[in-house]
Design goal:
alpha+beta; single chain; 5 strands; three-stranded antiparallel β-sheet
């Protein structure tokens, strides 16, 4: 059999290049997807951690279920956008996250005084470059309650 030195081999170099470029593109795309997924998850994790800290420092003014729900809604908006008064979809908000997907749970002692608060993400689809990941219960954060306990301070 003749080697490339003895006969022209123009097409084989082009074929090798095409195959190696395809492999390199797939590897680069996989690395980008992996990195973007970690970036997005880290952003969610930071938002949840900040939300738990915000909820633990807010005055607890929740004697009625309606008042407790208003307080939880403030925490949900803080997790989504970093501001308890902002509307979802604005600047600085986590893309695709809605307040309904943020779970806030206050844990109280036997007298009803809050001891800790938990914040978690439920039913969120983390969109990556080529696929999506379902997050249910993660990321989550808990914080000891350090705010003021004022159960009669809830406005009507």
């Amino acid at each position: 059999m003749k080697s490339c030195a003895q006969r022209p081999c123009r097409g084989s170099v082009l074929l090798e290049l095409a195959l190696s470029v395809i492999v390199l593109i797939l590897m680069t795309a996989g690395a980008l997807q992996f990195g973007y997924a970690f970036y997005s998850y880290g952003r969610l994790q930071r938002a949840v951690r900040n939300g738990a800290r915000f909820a633990s420092l807010e005055p607890y003014q929740s004697r009625t279920p309606a008042c407790l729900e208003r307080q939880k809604e403030r925490v949900r908006r803080f997790v989504v956008c970093g501001d308890p008064a902002s509307a979802p979809g604005g600047a600085g908000c986590v893309p695709g996250l809605s307040p309904e997907q943020v779970e806030v749970v206050y844990h109280a002692d036997d007298k009803g005084v809050p001891v800790s608060v938990e914040v978690a993400i439920r039913g969120f689809r983390l969109a990556s470059v080529f696929s999506t990941y379902e997050l249910d219960g993660t990321p989550a954060a808990a914080a000891s309650f350090a705010g003021r306990y004022a159960p009669n301070g809830c406005p009507p």
